[in-house]
Design a protein that fits this description.
about 80% helix, mainly alpha
């Protein structure tokens, strides 16, 4: 179980930097809003409203049902993967783990700053699992997701001619997630020396804070321990591949609703580009960047931009409704609230 000092995360350091952190968070929120506004403008520039409305009316919405079932299946796979990642730190029942996953995605969809990951670590900490270790497992999730998306993008590039922006997105994703994976492996190999170095750097300022930092680093490393077992790496990779396959099915079923002539590899490409492109700062739910990227990808298959924009809004709206409904029910079941999780996240 976490020591009380972990919950404080070094009260002295937090009290000194809290105002700066809050200003930084507010600044990032405004940057995200401006990015979303810019991409919404680009997405709507030159749009034909009549074509958008016609596409909205002509869609076969019964295809949205299997799309959302695929989405929920993907969240169940995420749950199983997270349970596997958490094993070194503790075990969480499947229903509870699923609820916490859905709550974290709900938080990311309604609050800026992607606070859902911190919220998931906070909630699982109530089960006696180190919150720092839980946070490390969420980091690993993102790294594996990024690597699988890059694999999907590479596969699509072998079968489809990608424009320059597609290659740039792939290179940026490779730099981000590839370096994160290598740094993680390096830290695991040099954990003892790394913690000793951190301790030496912080000790001149505060011995107590140095002890706190060393403890947090050890608990964070515990959350990375699955990378030291080959069978765990295989299981996590398999879950990651399955998760993004369900995500591609969400795209494919929704594309079918609009009767676009896009092959399944096009749905894979759309999934990969949206997965990578929406990591940039934006408003909650990646509003704006989501629409613009979808229009660019579907343009490769000669889909009219106005119809593609309608598709993007329907795709995002249907996913948002599912996440908010299921995440809201999970929040009621767990007896927590958005406000409580936000207050926790803002402390750090």
């Amino acid at each position: 179980m976490d020591k009380p000092v972990e919950n404080d995360l070094g009260k002295s350091a937090v009290s000194i930097s809290k105002s700066n952190d809050r200003r930084t968070q507010q600044g990032m929120t405004w940057i995200g809003i401006l990015v979303s506004v810019l991409f919404l403008y680009l997405a709507f520039r030159g749009v034909d409203w009549h074509t958008m409305w016609s596409a909205l009316l002509a869609a076969e919405y019964f295809w949205i049902f299997p799309a959302q079932l695929s989405l929920l299946a993907g969240f169940l796979v995420i749950t199983w993967r997270w349970q596997r990642l958490l094993r070194p730190a503790g075990r969480v029942p499947t229903r509870r783990a699923f609820n916490l996953v859905m709550i974290s995605y709900l938080i990311n969809y309604v609050l800026p700053g992607r606070l859902g990951e911190l919220g998931r670590a906070y909630l699982v900490g109530q089960d006696g699992i180190s919150r720092m270790a839980a946070l490390a497992t969420v980091v690993l999730e993102k790294v594996f997701d990024g690597l699988v998306i890059l694999l999907a993008l590479a596969l699509a590039s072998l079968m489809l001619p990608l424009p320059a922006w597609g290659h740039w997105i792939g290179l940026a994703g490779l730099a981000l997630f590839g370096s994160a994976f290598l740094i993680t492996l390096l830290w695991l190999r040099m954990e003892t020396r790394g913690i000793a170095l951190l301790t030496r750097l912080v000790t001149p300022f505060s011995k107590r804070l140095a002890d706190d930092v060393a403890g947090m680093a050890q608990r964070f490393t515990l959350g990375l321990a699955t990378l030291q077992q080959g069978q765990d790496i295989f299981a996590i990779t398999t879950f990651s591949l399955l998760h993004w396959t369900t995500n591609a099915l969400v795209m494919a079923f929704t594309l079918r609703a609009f009767r676009f002539d896009v092959p399944f590899i096009g749905a894979v490409l759309l999934m990969a580009v949206l997965g990578l492109g929406t990591t940039v700062p934006s408003a909650p739910g990646a509003l704006g960047t989501y629409q613009w990227l979808a229009v660019q990808v579907l343009g490769l298959f000669a889909v009219d931009p106005s119809s593609a924009l309608t598709f993007a809004f329907v795709l995002q709206f249907s996913q948002t409704v599912t996440i908010v409904l299921v995440g809201g029910l999970a929040m009621l079941w767990e007896g927590t609230s958005v406000g409580r999780i936000r207050r926790y996240a803002e402390r750090y």
